[in-house]
Amino acid sequence: MSSSTIAPVLPEGAGYGVVVGIGFFFAIVMAGISYIQNRYTKYSTKGSEEFNTASRSVKSGLIAAGIVSAWTWAATLLQSCTVAYEYGISGPFWDAAGATVQIFMFAVLACKVKQNAPRCHTFLEIIHRRYGPGPHMVFIFFALLTNILVASQLLLGGSAVVTALTGMNVYAAIFLIPLGVSVYVVLGGLRATFLCDYTHTFIVMIIILYFMFSVYTSNALIGSPTKMFELLAEASVKRPVEGNQNGSYLTLKSNYALIFGVIQLCSGLGTVFLDQGYWQRAIASRPTTAVRAYALGGMAWFAIPFGFATTLGLAAVALTDNPAYPTYPNNMTTSQISSGLSGPFAAVALLGKPGSIALLLTLFMAVTSSSSSELIAVSSILTFDVYKMYMKPLATPEQLIKVAHIMICVFGLVMAAFACIWNAIGIDLGWLFLVMGLLIGGAVFPAAFTIIWKKQSKYGAVSGALGGLAAGLIAWLVTAKTYYGDLSVTTTGESYPTLAGNMASVLTGLIMTTVISYIKPDDFDWEITRGINAASEVGSPVGDSSSREQSPPGLPSDAEKKSCPLRKIESNFNHNSTLPTVIDEEKEAREDREIMEDPTRLRGAFKFACISATALTLLMDFIIPIPMFLSHYVFSRGFFTGWVVISFIWVFFALGSCAILPVWEAAGFFKDFWREVRVGKKVRDEIKS
Question: Is the pLDDT of residue 529 over 60?
Fold first, then answer.
């Protein structure tokens, strides 16, 4: 039985309404945000520097929300439920822990970017300045490959769920999802994209809490942690899990979940370290808040797959034998599981149409927010590392903005085309998710060492990236052939071949770049990369640009304002340089420039990044899970209840970090905005009278 035989819970029109309607709703919201930003702050979206880097002035709360948004793919939600369905309680933990530590590690790179290349637009500009055009081209290939794989995964997962829940044509969903996203990214640029990402993340967390409270407090089918424990214990007897202690769903002693965790770790290293979207957030942040933002973002993101899958993933296991489950009386097929449908089916069984609508909104928010990150990331690479680097080095800000807009639209089509190709040839979300790391893992450490290790040579960097790719492909295919006797989509997507390929790719890249660089080391002077874009900042984020000095059509000219006392008053109130928000922004900009000139002031932040990344990685990937794995511990009723309570606490922490903190940081702006609106209305009324 395939997913097509499951009757859609929602009408087809609901799918089109969500995909098209909500997409363009956010486009309108983005237009409003851009207008407010241009009117009440000193940053103009008409400057390419602001459009692509948010003028490097975003605070920690919004950066953390952006990180959570960028890392919350459809795969984050769907795959976490899949591994919960397959491996039990260990699946959500390893899914979250295996993909959180990369964010903690990236905090180190974020700090080093601010120290060693504070004015860059992309991490590829650093590679070009250090190693020249040849290595630059190699890493452009890996960066774009990463973005294509990630973006097509987003659309594959999102379209599969939209089709399963509404019956909407899968190819229509694939092409319509990036349409609205492309529109709002073109309208707003990076900063306004952060604000929409904030909205998406807030909605996702509220809906996750809705599912959690329903499943564990009120739902008639489960309704409490005790009932969930009993149903999982029954499922362990009826459908024991291979490789788990006593076949139980209630243990961290799960061989295949551990394998998945290692694959997740290797794959996640590539998708974070080689995705320009994460470098872009480091570049956009203030130097003093970059490390804190990544540490906060990593902690907050852990809650999403952990809380979501501990709820819906385990609910799918518990309700498989319940008549309310969509596949009853049959179990889910391998295809349905690999497509990530366990979570959606659980939502349907638990809550019917309301659950379907809530899940559809959740996945749409996840897909669109992470898609926006991919769109502007690829746009930056093609604009600054291809167009400006090789085609028109003296491009004006207006030309760069135009190219950035075009590239956003082009990549929107490209990501949809690749998703259609994967779907047509039978490549599903699960296969692509497991295989991706072995394709890009070789370039992980060469890219990271470019910004943190001055002795890495260009030969070490290139050989590590390409050697890792070759080793990953060989290990993957040889293991599949050895274990299963043939090479097919099924055998190459199994745990052992993908584990071998991922580990071979990442470790070969690390070993080759280290050994070759030690044999013939470089001695790079970081002052060279600190000089990137130092001579002339592209764009005009400051408040004295010509676009601000000219009176908009219909408003009085400067001469008219001087001749009219009331218009002079209006001019004084409306000039954004008088706003306290702008004064604060200029003060922060001066502080940031001082740090750019004296990067030693970030040594404390670098030490904090190293210590926190090491401590949190050890805690999540070793101290908590390994003792429970080695002891073969099976959860008791009380321990499981405590585990569920922890998932609730973590989601509330994430909600506070990504929803409340950005509002608190922006309190001054909202105060000035309301003051400006009130005063402006009063002055306009006086003019009319």
Answer: yes
What 3-state DSSP class applies to 531?
coil
pLDDT band (50, 70, 90) for residue 687: low
Taking the CA of residue 262 as centre, how many other CA atoms within 13 Å lie in the half-sphere pointing to its CB? 19
Helix axes 290-308, 603-618, angle to 10 degrees: 20
List of residues 6+ apart from 66 with CB closer than 8 A: 58, 193, 194, 197, 198, 281, 297, 373
At which residue do the structure tokens 């459809």 appear?
A: 74
Is pLDDT larger for residue 547 or for residue 639?
A: 639
pLDDT band at 563 (very low <50, low <70, confident <90, very high): very low
The pLDDT tens digits of the residues spanning 502-518 come to 999 999 999 999 999 99
Residues 553-589, buried b or exposed e (16+ Cβ, 10 A)? eeebeeeebeeeeebebbbebbebeebebbeebeeeb
Q: Please give the structure tokens belonging to residue 681.
A: 């209305």
Q: Compute the distance between CA of residue 506 and CA of residue 475 in angstroms, rounded to an integer.
A: 12
Tokens 């309310």 found at: 324
Supply the pTM of this predicted model. Answer: 0.85
Residue 251 Rama label (left phi>0; alpha psi -120 to 50; beta): beta
What tens digit of pLDDT does each residue of 323-354 get?
Answer: 999 998 888 988 888 878 899 999 999 999 99
Name the one residue in this structure whose structure tokens are 């959860």: 635
**Opening angle at CA 302, ends 296 and 306, nearest 5:** 155
Angle at 380 between CA 122 and CA 430, to 5 degrees: 90
| Partners of residue 634 on adjacent β-strands | 251
Distance CA 265, CA 524 (A): 30
> Does position 424 have pLDDT exceeding 70, yes or no?
yes
Q: How many CB atoms lie within 10 A of CB 499?
A: 23
pLDDT of 541 strictly over 70: no
Note the pLDDT tens digit of each residue in 466-496: 999 999 999 999 999 999 989 998 899 898 9
Nearby residues of 604 by Cβ (< 8 Å), 6 or more positions away: none
Helix (H, G, I), strand (E, B) or coil at 254: strand
Hey, what amino acid is at 94? W
What pLDDT was estimated at residue 312?
95
Which of 342, 323, 267, 268 minimizes the C-alpha distance to 86?
A: 342
Name the residue among 269, 255, 263, 265 with its Cα closest to residue 500: 263
Asked if 46 and 260 touch (Cβ cutoff 8 Å), the reply is no
**Beta strand spans in 208-361 (E):** none
Q: Which CATH class is domain 12-425+577-688?
A: mainly alpha
- Answer for the pair 598, 52: CB distance below 8 angstroms, yes or no: no
Higher pLDDT, 689 or 250: 250
Distance from C-alpha of 495 to C-alpha of 512, rounded to nearest angstrom: 25
Q: Residue 614's Cα: distance from chain center in Å?
A: 22
Task: Identify the pLDDT of residue 671.
Answer: 62
3-state secondary structure 587-623: HHHHHHHHHHHCHHHHHHHHHHHHHHHHHHHHHHHHH
What's the one-letter identity of residue 206? I
Residue 158's SS3 state is helix
